[in-house]
Write a structure and sequence with these properties.
Elements lengths: L7 E3 L5 E3 L2 E2 L5 E3 L2 E3 L10 H6 L5 H9 L3 H4 L5 E6 L1 H6 L1 H4 L13 H6 L2 E2 L13 E3 L5 E7 L2 E4 L2 E10 L2 E6 L8 H6 L2 H13 L18
Length: 219
């Protein structure tokens, strides 16, 4: 459920769950209430942790728009490298928009957000120098550690180890972007240099970066 609230459900067979945990022994009476036994401790999931911190309001809105909330409320485990509102504001030029709300509705938003999530349960001590992290989107980012500063790709972790029942949330100062079509083509000049030259000559190169309408493209 939402932060600070429990989500109760009862199926057709009478099974009751609270935040996805099945109630075992129910209705044990007490003088001042009722006890329902459950087999595990209830903890907020990574989405609820993000919702509880207003610095992630843009991320939370984006997760809802990209239909990723249900995924990240599941058992997991998940580690979310969570861009702050300031991180999204800093990426507006890259996206060619002037407000974070303009990112909502982009067809590629799901891919972008999935790049911030891994199915490894990583507290800060496990994000070690040189560690390669594979995202839900399929791209990889390499962690680097320099003194007290830890980076994932180009983003610095600014708030580590926000614990959730199904993983961890780490605040980061930049949006992690999977390589665009132009990035991939430019990185393989031996194969795609002619394509890149033609796109540039035709004035279409920017269309295949993130500075477009957000539609997913195939080349």
């Amino acid at each position: 459920g939402a932060a600070g609230k429990l989500s109760l459900a009862k199926d057709g067979g009478g099974t009751v769950t609270v935040d996805g945990v099945t109630v075992g022994t129910a209705d044990t009476a007490a003088g001042n209430g009722v006890i329902h036994a459950i087999p595990s401790v209830l903890m907020p999931n990574v989405v609820e942790v993000a919702k509880s911190d207003k610095t992630f309001s843009t991320l939370v809105a984006a997760l809802g728009d990209a239909s990723l909330v249900a995924t990240l409320q599941a058992v997991g485990p998940y580690t979310v490298f969570a861009p702050t509102n300031a991180a999204f504001d800093g990426a507006l030029t890259t996206f060619g928009v002037d407000a974070a709300t303009a990112l909502l509705g982009r067809e590629d938003l799901t891919h972008i957000l999935q790049a911030h999530v891994t199915t490894e349960k990583l507290d800060a001590s496990l994000v070690t120098d040189g560690k390669v992290i594979t995202s839900l989107q399929g791209t990889t980012f390499t962690a680097s550690v320099d003194g007290s500063a830890t980076k994932v790709g180009e983003a610095t972790i600014t708030g580590a180890d926000k614990y959730a029942g199904n993983g961890f949330v780490h605040a980061i100062d930049k949006v992690l972007l999977p390589p665009s079509i132009v990035d991939v083509a430019s990185g393989d000049a031996a194969t795609f240099s002619t394509l890149v030259d033609l796109l540039t000559t035709a004035g279409l190169a920017e269309t295949f970066t993130y500075k477009n309408d957000g539609t997913v493209k195939t080349v």
